[in-house]
Amino acid sequence: MTDKLSFKSRKIRLLIKLAVALxxxxxxxxxxxxxxxxxxxxxxxxxxxxxxxxxxxxxxxHGGTDGGAVSPNGVVEAGINLDIARRLQLVAQFYGFDxxxxxxxxxxxxxxxxxxxxxxxxxxxxxxxxxxxSTPNSVFISIHQNIYxxxxxxxxxxxxxxxxxxxxxxxxxxxxxxxxxxxxxxTNRRGAVKVQKSIYLMNSLKCKAILVECGFLSNPQDESVLxxxxxxxxxxxxxxxxxxxxxxxxxxxxxxxxxADAQEPDDQNTPTYHLTEDLL
Length: 280
Ligand SMILES: [Zn+2]
What we know:
Elements: H1 2-38, H2 41-49, E1 55-60, H3 77-94, E2 99-101, H4 117-133, E3 138-146, E4 157-160, H5 166-180, E5 193-194, H6 200-204, E6 208-216, H7 220-225, H8 229-247
Parallel strand pairs: 1-2, 1-3, 3-6, 4-5
Antiparallel strand pairs: 4-6
The structure holds zinc ion.
Zinc ion is lined by residues 61-62, 68-69, 77, 144, 274-275.
């Protein structure tokens, strides 16, 4: 009898404990749901943005009827930009990042009324800008090739937009490019520079943004390696590495030590001659 009662009371106590646990769990779920739903969508996004990785927007400069810079041997910038941009996308996707490409093909579908180069460029730049500014939590990296009236200037140069965090990203990518490319006999002493005010896209977007001039099509050695698949992959990997390093908050990177006898190449930090965004 006693055993039976004791068994019964243990069972009742267990049921009570279970009921209390369920009530607490239900209350916790309701409260969490209430807090979540009471936040406006905007606030909800803000709550999670601190833990969400940014979307990497990759921009292959020029395209369509705008080929960009053309080397003395006839190598066109737009094709090299697309090759490097595609490789950058592959690397970023491999590491699980969401990516957006501003163009995927050599051609661009222009509207019927865009007939002149100027009209087509305007349409293209505004379409890209709309895509960039409508992508939340994004970082923008534009790929270009430089050109100069003289053959001597070589090496990569990073330009950064005036938006928050762009300078830090630009400096990080520039330093990595300098420490990993052109290191044998040539020395790239370029520093990251703020983009000229005339460059419409880079001055109109809202997110963190850099423009990477991967090399000079006017320099024979750069012109040659920029067309090589291995060099393009290396560039993509270095740029992505800079992007990740910047995400981790490691800034500034230490400036790269140069040998004392390093030759100073001509025209460091040269302006770009191929960016036609000032047509706008
Ligand atoms: Zn360009």
